[in-house]
Amino acid sequence: CYNASIALFQDGCDAGYECVDDLCRVSVEPVDGRTCHIICSAGKYCENGSNKCRGPSYKGECFNLATGFFEDGCEDGFYCSFNKCVDVSLEDESGSLDDNTTDMLEDDSSNSDSIGGSSSPTTTTTNEAMRHNSLVAAISATLFSAILQLEEDD
């Protein structure tokens, strides 16, 4: 497993860390009842007892953070936003989050000007996810470059 603190691969991880996808990560229990610790891409979730990320299997299926499973719709007081059940009270704070994100993520050609200034919650979330993924890719590339440099120095 790769220990980013010392930039080396090692057998297992130090105390307080666990090996997830060949990378030592801080070991924490999720506060929302899920047992799957995989970090998934935007709009996808890992169900309890699984080790794979997935989106909804059919229209109306939504991920319930409290149970850790996809379900048909959401419980009272919640609505489906970005493929997960969200507390209705969150709508008042950030504007309407009710959207058809699944369709927009599957076919991005329908919103080709999404980067050009649209302020819909879907576009904002998608752009934030793209920025996050770009940052992760840049950090990974820098880290990989440093590892290669260390190997060349040996």
List keywords for this structure.
alpha+beta, 3 helices, 29% helix, two-stranded antiparallel sheet, 154 residues, elongated, 2 domains
In total, how many domains does the architecture comprise? 2
- Tell me, briefly, the overall form: elongated
In spatial order, strands of the major sheet run 1-2
Q: Based on helices, strands and strand pairing, what is the structural class?
A: alpha+beta
Average pLDDT confidence is 72
DSSP strand count: 10
Provide the low-confidence segments as ranges: 93-124
Percent helix: 25-40%
Biggest β-sheet description: 2 strands, antiparallel
Count of runs of 4 or more consecutive helical residues: 3
Q: What is the string of helix and strand elements?
A: EEEEEEEEEEHHH
Question: Kindly, what is the distance between the CA atoms of the first and last residues, rounded to a whole number of angstroms?
Answer: 21 Å
Oligomer description:
single chain
Report the radius of gyration as a whole number of Å.
19 Å
Strand content: 15-25%
Compose a concise summary of this entry.
The protein has 154 residues and is α+β, with helices and mostly antiparallel strands. It contains three helices and ten strands. Mean pLDDT is 72; it is low at 93-124.
